[in-house]
Amino acid sequence: MAVVTPTKIVCVGRNYAKHAAELGNDVPAEPLIFLKPPSAVLAPGAPIVLPRGVGRVDFEGEIGLVIGRRARHVSVDDAWDHVAALAPVNDVTARDLQRADGQWTRAKGFDTFCPVGVPAPVSAVDLGALAVSTRVNGELRQHGSIDEMAFSIPVVIAHISRIMTLEPGDLIATGTPEGIGPLEAGDEVSVEVAGVGTVTNPVVEEVM
Ligand code: MG
Predict the structure, then answer these.
(1) Residue 142: half-sphere exposure toward Cβ, Cα within 13 Å
(2) Using one digit for the tens of pLDDT, what is the confidence trace for 8-55?
(3) Which CATH number applies to 9-205?
């Protein structure tokens, strides 16, 4: 069972300078956002399915936010008041399709491409110590703390809320640090958010 049921998943691209650089990009002047479909949400322990014929598929460990109170035109100062919980998120990405398409909907939108861990209430989390780590088969591949974000979590929430109404249950993925890399069938990938929790998923080939 999926642990979240968002009406939309809003993701931030290139929010860590070293990750932007590893893919040959600059940090944008404003938060760069895109959507993943709610149908991509995957429960902890369920398999990430590698679609046939799409080339490289990467993990992207991210700090996820679950909206608790409708947010529209919220200020940076009030932004955290609209968040109910945090959760580890894996923004799984078909990297070759992302490069080929320009638009990211296909690359980011396959079923199973959004593993989400069990949310932890904001009140239970040390927001100053937030960091995300990704492990593949137990080996540390990514680590980033919120200090390294180009746009802070409150700035991201305020920015998105000026564009679209964030509804309770909506999910925001706040961007991935450097170290992204490909997944292969048989791998096990874990995204851990410090003080929040971990989401772990096996990786399988698509069976037609
Ligand atoms: Mg991402």
Answers:
(1) 33
(2) 999 999 999 998 889 899 889 999 999 999 999 999 999 999 999 999
(3) 3.90.850.10
Angle (nearest 5°) at CA 148 between 147 and 152: 65
| 78 three-class SS | coil
In the reported structure, the alpha carbon of residue 185 is separated from the centroid of ligand 1 by a whole-number distance in angstroms of: 21
| Domain spans, the chain | 9-205
Rounded CA gap, 87 and 3, in Å?
A: 10
Q: 152 by DSSP, 3-state: which?
A: coil
Quote the ligand 1 centre to 208 CA distance (angstroms): 27
Centre of ligand 1 to C-alpha 100, Å, is: 17
Confirm if 170 and 161 have CB atoms less than 8 A apart.
Answer: no
pTM of the model: 0.97
